[in-house]
Amino acid sequence: MILQSERPVENSPTTMSIRATRAYVDLDAIATNVRALRGVLPESTRLMAVVKADAYGHGSPWVANAALKAGASILGVATVSEGQLLRHQGVVAPIVLLGSIDVDEVEAACRAGLEITVADDELLRAIEAVARLASPDRPVAVHLKIDTGLRRYGAMPEQVSSMARQIRSDPYLRFAGLSTHFASADEPDEAFTEEQLTAFERVVAMLAEEEFPIPPRHVANSAAVLTGRSGNCEIARPGIALYGVPPSADVKLLPGMRPALRIESRITRLVPIAPGDSVGYNRTFCACRSMTGALVPIGYADGYRRALAGQSWVGIRGRRAPVLGRISMDQIVVGIPPGIEARVGDPVHVIGGEPELGAPSIAEMAEMMGTNTYEVLVGIRQRIPRVFIQSGRTVAVRTLSDAWTFD
Ligand SMILES: *Cc1c(COP(=O)(O)O)cnc(C)c1O
Fold first, then answer.
1. Partners of 344 in the beta sheet?
2. Of residues 125, 205, 123, 99, the one with CA closest to residue 157
3. 98 lines ligand 1 (CB under 6 A)
């Protein structure tokens, strides 16, 4: 569990001894992005900030709190322990478990006051079995998820009416939501998204015909919100866009939105390289001229993937410095661009930030790694300290073993 402790004043955030390699998380960017998303949603639509996977690697609960302050009113997580962690940190906002949980976890979820998404009778029955004991004073909130084409987690439309009846008839349950999830809202051709919306609306209409009060509906991920397909529902559930990162190359962010995370390190050593020298394990890079390498303390154990060798670069004094040879577990060597006088201690921009810094963007990293922007973000390991910035000040630092907040 993360510890929160006060730090003596003389240990100012700027002099605090944390690793040279750190991820700066701009909480003002999170707030700006939340407000931008709010701006394209109807006033009455509530925003569920999806903060699963440690807020897409950015660091929950700081991101969660920043999003709540900026206008989100619900949080979305994937696992019970993610929800419990937020509760341990004092978060009182509604927290929705977006995916399936094991029946053995139901009691813990109820005790933490988490809202549970159901898609089958078995889980629903497990909730009914423990709701009265685990949460006697407050009904357990249940969201019913409908599969409209993703074929992953969701009840088939024909199961919905009986499950809805079951939820409504149990006084220890509260029917808190009706949802579905899009398969390809991040693609330019959105015909399938329309089909899914139509299928969802058909189920809603069927329930309405049975004179069911319809609980809050939610369908829209970031791509759907950004492309205006939130279906006029009562709740929207953006994730990646909160972090200022587009869901795919085909979907654009809204004006003013910006990435919240960047990784910066420092040159810890200069390495003289003579013509004919090789650099790194297995000697995959061989210098044909004399040059200077810079040692940067980041490696594949930090999530700087080994497959980036031969492709990636870092920004030094605004210029691109290519990674030389293999990526080690804890360090890389980059080639200092000709004409640049680099010194030990100089900042090295590894990922993200203003383009002038010279680092690859999250999207460029995704391209090089053959994956999506999501995996780049959640692949940033806990070993890289998170430094949380608000109004230009460091407000919190989280390392692998500890966390501090500053007032
Ligand atoms: C992760 C997730 C989201 C958020 O998706 P983004 O593409 O990051 O906006 C929304 N809904 C569900 C069910 C999810 O699992």
1. none
2. 205
3. yes
Hey, which bits of 325-376 come out as E strands? 332-335, 347-351
Given a cut of 80, whether residue 311 has pLDDT beyond it is yes
d(CA 67, CA 286): 48
Is residue 46 within 8 Å of residue 234, measured between CB atoms?
yes
Quick check: 3 pLDDT over 90? no
The C-alpha atoms of residue 1 and residue 86 are separated, in whole angstroms, by 11
- Model confidence at 176: pLDDT above 70: yes
Ligand 1 pocket test, pick from 37, 50, 54, 376 with the greatest ligand atom count within 8 Å of Cβ, gives 50
Strand ordering across the sheet containing 319-324 = 4-5, 403-405, 393-398, 386-390, 22-26, 261-266, 347-351, 313-316, 319-324, 332-335, 291-296, 269-273
Could you give the percent of the chain with pLDDT greater than 70? 96
Please tell me the least confidently modeled range out of 74-78, 230-234, 303-307, 315-319.
Answer: 230-234
